[in-house]
Design brief:
By secondary structure, this protein is of the alpha+beta class. The protein has helices at residues 4-15, 19-36, 45-56, 61-71, 103-116, 144-153, 177-187, 210-224, and strands spanning 80-87, 93-100, 120-122, 131-140, 158-164, 167-172, 193-202, 229-234. The chain contains 8 helices and 8 strands. Residues 11-17 have low confidence and may be disordered.
């Protein structure tokens, strides 16, 4: 399916983002994971893996602990995940994932970003039907066949598997991510995931002309500068 290149590039772009926003996004995600399950990482595998991921991104312990305290009821903040869909220049589309404690504020800021470039938000499913909700894992390992057999024997549906430059990239259903990690870690102790993401991936990518690309880049930056925005998915090939 050829996602390895785009996913790797997106991951590199993310690591270059401002640390402050990265910390804020992880704090909100940890809060949500703790609220949906247990605030005790030992009893909540999703939360435990998210905290491990945050630590690998060098998120300070006090930020992680504050997020856990909020989930236990300490503090007044209440975060929600909201998704917006919009149309950019040319045939470009965007899906914007936000983590917010004030939905009215967030939608106003997202709509204003589109208005500044004379583009518009869409209604639910106006864009997302052209995307797939997938989990992506990338890690260093040589034996692609061994990994595939391991996962298939565990009843995991492997949507796609690629090997390139010594890295294996797996495309999975989001619900299979934790089970797949358990299986991988059973034969690859202390595995380091180059990419560990669940997101929306466009079924078909497009390229924009110079003028449209300039408008798109402006829109993307306006959205990315909004603190409540945690992820932006698009069908545009970004160089």
């Amino acid at each position: 399916m050829g996602r390895a290149y785009e996913v790797r590039k997106a991951s590199i772009q993310k690591t270059g983002a401002a640390k402050g926003k990265l910390y804020t996004t992880f704090a909100k995600e940890i809060y949500l994971a703790a609220k949906k399950g247990s605030p005790n990482p030992d009893a909540n595998v999703v939360l435990k893996r998210l905290i491990d991921k945050a630590k690998k991104q060098q998120v300070p312990n006090d930020i992680i602990n504050r997020a856990l305290d909020k989930a236990k009821g300490v503090g007044q903040d209440e975060y929600h995940e909201v998704i917006y869909e919009g149309f950019g220049p040319g045939a470009s589309t965007l899906i914007i994932k936000c983590l917010t404690d004030n939905v009215n504020r967030t939608v106003g800021m997202v709509r204003a970003a589109f208005n500044k470039v004379n583009k518009s938000l869409g209604v639910t499913n106006s864009v997302s039907y052209n995307y797939e909700h997938l989990g992506i894992l990338m890690f260093k390992y040589e034996n692609e066949e061994e990994i595939l057999d391991l996962l298939l024997n565990a009843g995991i549906n492997v949507i796609d598997i690629e090997k390139e430059h010594g890295f294996i990239t797996l495309t999975l259903a989001p619900g299979d991510m934790n089970k797949a990690k358990d299986e991988i870690e059973s034969i690859v102790p202390n595995v380091e995931y180059e990419v560990d993401e669940v997101g929306m991936y466009a079924k078909e990518m497009i390229k924009l002309s110079e003028e449209d690309l300039e408008v798109f880049n402006k829109l993307f930056k306006l959205l990315d500068d909004i603190e409540d925005v945690s992820e932006i998915y698009t069908n545009v090939k970004m160089d």
